[in-house]
Amino acid sequence: MKKRTMSLLSLAILNFAYAQKDTLNQKNIEEVVITGQYTPQSINKSIYKVEIIDAIQIKNMAATNVADVLNQNLNILITPNSSSGDSNANIMGLSGEYTKILIDNIPVVSDKGMGNLVDLTKINVNNIERIEIVKGAMGVEYGNNAMAGVINIITKKNYQKKVTINASLQEETVGKDYDWKKKGYGRHIQSLNLGYRISDSFTLTADINHNDFQGFEGTQKGYKFFDETTNGQRGYEWQPKDLLIANAALRYSKKNTSIFYKVNFLNEDIDYYNPKTDVLAFSGGQRTFTAEDREYNSTRWIHQLNILTKLGSRINYNGDFSYQIQERDYTKKIYDVPNRYVRSESPKRTFYKSEVLYSRGMFSNFLDNDKINFQIGYELDNTKGFADSETFEFNNNGKSVNRSIFNYANFLSAEWNPLKWLSFRPGVRLTVSNKFDRQYNYSLTTRFSTTDKSNIRLILGSANRFPVYDELYTYVVDNNHDIRGNENLKPETGYSGGVSWDFATTNSNSWRMNVGLSGIYMDVKDRIESVIVSNSPLKYTYLNVDNYKSIILGASFNARKDNFSFNAGVSTLGVSQLLNTGNATSNDDFNYYVEANVSANYTLPKANTIFALYYKYTGKRKLYTLESDGASDTGHYVLGDIGDFNMLNFTVSQPFFNNHFELSLGVKNIFDVTSIRNTAQSGDGHNAATDLQNLFYGRSYFARINYNF
């Protein structure tokens, strides 16, 4: 499939022209946001502090997926899993369970549910118009799991040309390794975007993206490696991963009505090569060596329908509907390592499966009044989940998990503008569920326009997080451990309070500058944690026992003039986490670390050469972790370290022939970061923690070509 897809897309690149990028006015894109708004709103008048990453920034980063893009953002740490290939967003020190990932305002399905724990490497960037980020609890607007924040990915919908054809080819090294061949090295990416404006009202679009990652050996020696005296060095640090994503969409827009339908298809193959081999003996004293490898295959279908219209002459209606399904299958293969062939292969089995029916509707603009209005809405989702009996490490006591959870919510908010420079928006949400108790969330947002160029925002909000499959249904029993989920867990609850100030000005030399200051405080109650309930034999279960607090203080600066732009930011994050095993309780002191980022873009006059530089520093962190020998509770917590690291990317892009052809060259991860020391990651009850955490696969070089017709 890899070779055939690559050949077809490469042929498409040679035969089709890469048209001018979406001709929407970029200034308008930057100024208008939709996340948390009643209707699309200018960023200056937005009731929330919304961070924007637009298509131009994404292009200059040469990012291959959303995880690459968000890695440059302050207080967002992308946590990759080098074995599974998944990457989740860590915001305000909280893991992927606490962040809601949306595409066009609709939560994205994942292996374990809806909207959270979404693998960001499964979202390609070639059809993204912008990414909107709101940090802090957004429970009223976006419901469950929007505790740390919301990441809303807005895709391209408007094309002004009659026919638009965008194609590109990108080749990257993986560390120092690169090879075009099958089972070779490197990353090979091909993409094709098509747009056809049928009439003034109808637009048809389609795109396809193929991302072939050949894996990174690192300290391992590849899947072919065999040495009878050495066991454990076969395979890869980062497993090979082949990803194909396709979209097709139809948009209708006329007068006050806009209807957008899109279907998304994803296919992902991940090959896991077991580092360890076993002896397979035959009669007569003959023997060979085998490894139990696995091939994981994920498929995802997302159908979405967005409707924006007026009911009567005044009421605005915004409706989102979606049917989504994601399934991860696996096949076991017994591989004869020295003779290099598959001796046996098991039938395909389902690892995780999620099926979601989702709808969200909002009604606003009821009153003919410039000073006060309100919005009412509903949200429902029915999520069917399945986890195979082998998902939980061993055999889950021979039982698979098959559950369905239905959630329904109503929310109400009002926006009051008593003065031109003052706005209030209080809000409330009630969520009912067939699995959990009723959940109430509240919010109060205030915006002060101190001048035409300056705003102060005060934001209070609450949210909750529902337990995930592992926490509810885990059942792992071996000779040494007993780890069981708890179906009686209640949702975690939390709230955040934030303040932000931004100021924009233009001086006499035509420099446009923006300055911002912000602070957010978060408090999470009833955190779910694995707790020891018996020392002999050692037994664990999950209980609502922990508390978590974090504080972010940040500052940003942006300057633009003619062909030059410069952005810089700095923040400090403090985390206080009270941990409890049942036998020991941790200290709850705040531990702080610093982040900083800088980006600069310059376009050379006449030649139109674009130079782009992106830098981010993530400081050393300290977190409490349980000191454990893997078999018993030592009875106390210790302060572990997570090392600091620097990321630096550089890109040069040169257009030719009146922008019909473009060549981009660059270097990613110039400081060659691979792993960092981490003594704060605890074992999971049956595995001891390691002192190293894989982050990246080292410095890589890339080349990208575009052709514009």
UniProtKB/TrEMBL annotation:
One of its GO terms (cellular component) is cell outer membrane. Residues 46-150 form the TonB-dependent receptor plug domain. The keyword Heme does not apply. It is found in: Cell outer membrane. This is Outer membrane receptor for ferrienterochelin and colicins. It comes from the Bacteria. Belongs to the TonB-dependent receptor family. InterPro entries: Beta-barrel_TonB_sf, Plug_dom, Plug_dom_sf, TonB-dep_rcpt-like. GO terms for molecular function: siderophore uptake transmembrane transporter activity. It is a multi-pass membrane protein. SUPFAM superfamilies: Porins.
